[in-house]
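Co-fold these.
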Amino acid sequence: DTGVSQDPRHKITKRGQNVTFRCDPISEHNRLYWYRQTLGQGPEFLTYFQNEAQLEKSRLLSDRFSAERPKGSFSTLEIQRTEQGDSAMYLCASSPSVSTEAFFGQGTRLTVV
Amino acid sequence: AQSVTQLDSHVSVSEGTPVLLRCNYSSSYSPSLFWYVQHPNKGLQLLLKYTSAATLVKGINGFEAEFKKSETSFHLTKPSAHMSDAAEYFCVVSEVYNQGGKLIFGQGTELSVKP
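Predicted complex below.
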């Protein structure tokens, strides 16, 4: 399978715990995006990388959120001190820099209890 | 700033009848426009895209959309609905040169197809 891969698919955590999600983009895609989707809403942009450089972060991304893409390949999204409002589907997408089309992974569904 | 408005949160049609999902966009530059579909418990799938070539764009599964700059619209149509078309549809705008290619999604339109 050469699509975008996200791990885990589901995560249940207690409020206050830290969680980390991983995204493996399509090989040779140098752009990588993170989005968050809540029930009944469209995905909201969180941040994106061009290779290993994080070029933009949304105002939605509080200081508890951090994302990395250390070698320009896979990326991780960490949420510290989770809150119930963080419960959502976290989507990763990748694209080649010359294309506007993005390919999405299946997402990681986070439930904070 | 770019934005997208999907004019209907829910559309219901009968199988075999036409589908129209409406989308208006706002963009400062020449945008790229997309329609994505999301079936329950499935990932987002690209239906079609407009990137400043032909204004009438054909996509997968018989869907098509027409870019109308004067109306800032990009409505999605299909001549005959199928039960398998029932899903959530998102209109999306992107500005590569100004916004790094990030996608801005509309709120979505849920399409129901009745037998």
